[in-house]
Hints:
Blueprint: H1 10-16, E1 29-30, H2 33-42, E2 50-54, H3 60-67, E3 72-77, H4 83-92, E4 97-101, E5 117-122, H5 128-136, E6 147-153, H6 154-161, H7 171-179, E7 180-188, E8 193-194, E9 201-208, H8 218-230, H9 236-239, H10 247-254, H11 267-277
Parallel strand pairs: 2-3, 2-5, 3-4, 5-6
Antiparallel strand pairs: 1-8, 6-9, 7-9
Helix pairs in contact: 2-3, 8-11
The site of S-adenosylmethionine (SAM) has 22 residues, from strand 1, helix 3 and strand 3.
Amino acid sequence: MSQIDTLPPLRDVITRHDLRAKKSLGQNFLLDLNLTARIARAAGDLAGADIIEVGPGPGGLTRGLLAEGARKVLAIEKDGRCLPALAEIGAVYPGRLEVLEGDALEIDPLTHLSPPIKIVANLPYNVGTELLVRWLTPKVWPPFWTSLTLMFQKEVAERIVAKPGTKAYGRLAILAQWRCDARIVLTLPPSAFTPPPKIDSAVVHLTALPEPRFPADQKTLERIVATAFNQRRKMLRASLRGLDPQIEARLERLGIRPTARAEEISLEDFCMLARDFG
Length: 278
Ligand code: SAM
């Protein structure tokens, strides 16, 4: 196996620092540095970019990001046990790794970074979707980041890139694809991780569009999409009646079939409906 840096193998790092994986923190570590370098490359050109990494753990992906030329990596880690191992990486890349100990849901990393900013992470399963939704719904668009390169359970990754007419299509697909290009760039079996999770994982790469794909008010779109998919097996004329007693006539006027179900409706049509609600 080729070396990406002069640091010891991750298995040795884990043994030396006694980093036994904790399930409560969603710890499934990537120990193959060629694989973490591949994930880092999936984030595009890292030279001249600041990177936010959530949950560096023993630092496999962190090392990939630094070896691939990231200007700076700001890593946010909840598990204090990992900090000595991360400090060893920082010593090999002086001035390029900053580690914040704490909960990524509570830390605002922006004061520490300058644009362009990319987010790259093998996310803890328990907070992954919540972080993604936050990054996709900032107060202003374009957001502070230019791209997100994130590992999820494969099933979540499929929901992010899903197209209409599929079971995976829903709120997450619409939220992601309204203002981003989103694609799965890598699928990994459980055996890629230590300890192996029960399910496959996948890396999704999202690039922020300069403006939404179709115009719509964010809150109105979110309300319509949430209402429609909360009762995804019902026809739209039933699921959306709470928003407008005359919904059937409204849908017909817009050329949307009132008997269609939410999963049959394109992003463009959801945006048209949101604009019609004003
Ligand atoms: N990046 C490492 C890798 O690829 O091997 C570890 C990935 S592991 C799936 C998730 C990491 O996120 C763990 O190191 C865990 O301690 C950390 N973590 C869990 N919850 C967190 C939170 N709320 N904020 C920051 N880090 C968290």
